[in-house]
Every structure is written in structure tokens, then in C-alpha cells.
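Dear H.,

Thanks for agreeing to be a second pair of eyes. The structure we're designing against is below in C-alpha cell form, covering all 462 positions.
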């Protein structure tokens, strides 16, 4: 949503308006009861995605409605691909889904509704004006709010999301509907790390994730600086006895741990220790606009060769595909043609865009390395199983321990012809687009998936 804002007055007037009341959000999370945190996302759901020999993971990038429409087109195309010898499609076989900012809307809605999301997501969200109730212009009248926390708090957007998509669903209800496992990602702007709405973070803060609204997580994931005040999650240190997973202290102390895992583990420990009483969250794209940190952390934090999947899934597995659905916009602005500029909002936008674009390269490299290492570790573990272990984990007759291949790729506008890509990259990053632009981006999602060499190689080997 970083392109929502246009400057109607000079920023120097801000100092005169800073006396306005602070704009902030009230924490919505509640302390744990006596039951502790239950992460039923780790349950091996008895559905096709959990029982087949495939592993499919998708991550949806940020980019407002443009990102939501592009990822929706990818899902639509997967919903047309019939599985050989089965009655369902590839859509029903998705195991992992991660979303950030605009992509988190699609990820959350598909995770909740499954195939039914294809029937109405376009009408319920993509063609709607999700900016209703929001102030989308930085002006003399709003600059005081902007510099007092953010022009908007999160209430209008979360209410809109619940009224149009999520019907006040909580994470407890969201997690009861089976595969895929869905991660919603925001940015902890104090610790400079991803904040994933999962059991790790909520165990650390002694809070009940099952009662947290899904719409609030999505709104936090899309909270662009200045446009929104940070979403706030409160820590309740000392109020629960749930121990942190052992890997957190290990990763925080390990000088050889990956920078991403080490920073994340240290942040989790600060939450538990009470060093961060109020966690301030903003757009997930600030630290990872691809939304792949969650899967990277889930894998790197595992103390087994197969985590975060079960050993039964690891033995059945033959082919895995991980696709980053990247709907980033192209370059924009004419201030490069003059000595002056950028100024005001152009400067802010350029800084945010630079931060986001700089983060994606490092996060994708880490993701690529992690998944390739995972494949090697799985093969080594599988080939070291005893006959009794193979039988216990369900190895079939003729099973080969090295029959395992990972396919890792990115889907982006730049993979289409240059003229079409330029048109798509010019679609603004906001939550209100004309119908023609929405449909053009949806079609691009379908076409990019079909054209992907990584996807075609994966599909050919099923």
C-alpha cells in the first residue's frame, strides 16, 4: 500500500501539528489460560495434502490488491490441474502457504475456505474498495496524525476485512480446517525480524493464539508505515509455564547459526524475558516481502532431518515444489530527471521500496539454500533408516531412499513478455483497483504458472 499517499503540503508543517493526540492501536491478544499453547498446525491432517507423496509450498508477496490478484490467478490455475489417478486437483495438495501484506489476504482466505475461495474471492475482495473508511492522502489535515503514529489505526481495516471476508474468525477456528498450513507474516520493527503469527511467538509472550482475530493478523501484515500506526501485541511475561522450544536458546547462543534464525531466536527470548512488553508490528514486507522467512525458520529450527513435516510424510515424499509468487511493482518516479528530489512522500516511498527490494534477495537466497540442504538431509536420513523403521514409517514395496527431488522457483511479471510485464508492474500498490487491472493481473498469475519451467518440470515428474 506504499503508493497510496500523495503529498499536499510541505513536511515542515509537521512540527506545528505534533501536539495532536498519539495515533495507536490497542492490543487485542489475551493471556493464556491453563491449557497452554496448542499448535494443531503440526497435526498430520488426514487429507490428500498430508497423505500423498508430494510437498507443495507457496509464498505470496506483498503488493496490495495487485499481489492478492496475482496469487489468486496462480491458485485458479492450480485448481485446473487434475492429479493423475485422482479425483482432485493440485489445489487440494498444497501443504504450506505463507503470505505477507496483500498476499496475506489471499493466503488467509484460501486457508480458511479452500477451493470455495475461488468462487467468490474476486467479488468479495479483489473488486471491492478495501480502502473504505481509510484516509489515503497525506495533507495538512493528516500530517499531524502521520507524525503521531500513523494516519490510520487498524480498526477500520480489520472491521472491513471481517465484514467482507473473515466473519470474525479467530486463529483457533482457522486452524481447525486442515491443510494447508498457513503463515501470516508481519515485521517486528523494534527487533527488525519477522513476526509470524504462530505458536512460537505466542508461547513466548504467554498469549492465547486461538483467540486472536485472523483479520487483525492480516491487517498487521499490511500496515504500511505512516499510512498506519503499528499493530500492537502485548507480552505477558511470567504468566505461563510453557517452556520455549529448546532450539530457541540454542540458536540464540550459536555463533554459527544463520543470521535470520539467530535474530529471530533472540527476539523470541526477549519476548519471554519481558524486555519487549509491547511488540510493534508493521508491514511484513519491511523485512521479507516474499513471505518465505516462516518456512525458512520452521526448517532451520528443526532438530530432525525431516521437520517441519512428520517422518511418515518424509518417507512417502518423492517430489517437492516451493514457489515464490512475486508481484512487485516496477521502478517509478520522475525525480531522477532533475537535480532536485525526491522530497516529502517521494523520499519516504523510495526509502520503503529500497528496504523491501533489498530484503528479498537475501531472504530468497537463504530460502533456496535451506530447501536444498533440506533435500540432502532428507535423502541421507531416509537412506540410513533400518528395515524396521522403514516399515514403521510406511515405506512401500520398491521404495527408493534417494527418489526425492525438490523444485524451487519464483513466479514474477518479468517472466512474461516485456510489454505485458511493464503494464503489470505499473499497477499501483493499493487496495482499490479497476476491474480491468484486477482481471489482467489474475490472468498473469495463471499464465506465469503455466509458463514456469520449474512448475512444468515438477508437473511432468508426478
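And this is the sequence the design step returned. I haven't edited it by hand at all.
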Amino acid at each position: 500500500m506504499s503508493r497510496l499517499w500523495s503529498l499536499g503540503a510541505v513536511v515542515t508543517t509537521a512540527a506545528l501539528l505534533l501536539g495532536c493526540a498519539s495515533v495507536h492501536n490497542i492490543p487485542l491478544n489475551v493471556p493464556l489460560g491453563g491449557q497452554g499453547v496448542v499448535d494443531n498446525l503440526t497435526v498430520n491432517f488426514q487429507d490428500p495434502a498430508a497423505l500423498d507423496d508430494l510437498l507443495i509450498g507457496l509464498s505470496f508477496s506483498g503488493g496490495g490488491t495487485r499481489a492478492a490478484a496475482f496469487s489468486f490467478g496462480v491458485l485458479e490455475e492450480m485448481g485446473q490441474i487434475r492429479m493423475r489417478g485422482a479425483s482432485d486437483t493440485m489445489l487440494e495438495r498444497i501443504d504450506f502457504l505463507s503470505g505477507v501484506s496483500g498476499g496475506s489476504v489471499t493466503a488467509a482466505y484460501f486457508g480458511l475456505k479452500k477451493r470455495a475461495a475461488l468462487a467468490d474471492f474476486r467479488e468479495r475482495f479483489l473488486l471491492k474498495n478495501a480502502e473504505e473508511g481509510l484516509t489515503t492522502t497525506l495533507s495538512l489535515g493528516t500530517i499531524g496524525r502521520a507524525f503521531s503514529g500513523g494516519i490510520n489505526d487498524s480498526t477500520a481495516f480489520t472491521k472491513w476485512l471481517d465484514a467482507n471476508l473473515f466473519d470474525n474468525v479467530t486463529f483457533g477456528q482457522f486452524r481447525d480446517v486442515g491443510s494447508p498450513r498457513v503463515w501470516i507474516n508481519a515485521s517486528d520493527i523494534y527487533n527488525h525480524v519477522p513476526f509470524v503469527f504462530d505458536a512460537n511467538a505466542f508461547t513466548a509472550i504467554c498469549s492465547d493464539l486461538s483467540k486472536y482475530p485472523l483479520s487483525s493478523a492480516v491487517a498487521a501484515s499490511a500496515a504500511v508505515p505512516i499510512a498506519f500506526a503499528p499493530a500492537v501485541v502485548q507480552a505477558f511475561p511470567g504468566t505461563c509455564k510453557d517452556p520455549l522450544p529448546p532450539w530457541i536458546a540454542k540458536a540464540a547462543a550459536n555463533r554459527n547459526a544463520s543470521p535470520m534464525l539467530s535474530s529471530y531466536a533472540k527476539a523470541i527470548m526477549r519476548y519471554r524475558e519481558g524486555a519487549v512488553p509491547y511488540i510493534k508490528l508493521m508491514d511484513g514486507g519491511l523485512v521479507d516481502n516474499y513471505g518465505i522467512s516462516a518456512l525458512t525458520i520452521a526448517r532451520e529450527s528443526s532438530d530432525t532431518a525431516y521437520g517441519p513435516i512428520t517422518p511418515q510424510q518424509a518417507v512417502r515424499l518423492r517430489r517437492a515444489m516451493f514457489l515464490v509468487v512475486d508481484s512487485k511493482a516496477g521502478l517509478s518516479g520522475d525525480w531522477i530527471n532533475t537535480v532536485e528530489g525526491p522530497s516529502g512522500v517521494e523520499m519516504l516511498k523510495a526509502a520503503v521500496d529500497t528496504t523491501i527490494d533489498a530484503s528479498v534477495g537475501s531472504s530468497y537466497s537463504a530460502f533456496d539454500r535451506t530447501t536444498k540442504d533440506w533435500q540432502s538431509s532428507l535423502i541421507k536420513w531416509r537412506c540410513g533408516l533400518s528395515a524396521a523403521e522403514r516399515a514403521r514409517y510406511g515405506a512401500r514395496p520398491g521404495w527408493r531412499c534417494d527418489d526425492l527431488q525438490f523444485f524451487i522457483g519464483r513466479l514474477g511479471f518479468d517472466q512474461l513478455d516485456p510489454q505485458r510485464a511493464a503494464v503489470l508492474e505499473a499497477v499501483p500498490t493499493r487496495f482499490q483497483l479497476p476491474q480491468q487491472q484486477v482481471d489482467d493481473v489474475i490472468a498473469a498469475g495463471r499464465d506465469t504458472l503455466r509458463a514456469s519451467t520449474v512448475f512444468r518440470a515438477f508437473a511432468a515428474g508426478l
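Two observations from my side: Residues 112 and 174 are 6 Å apart (CA to CA). The mean pLDDT is 87.

Warmly,
E.
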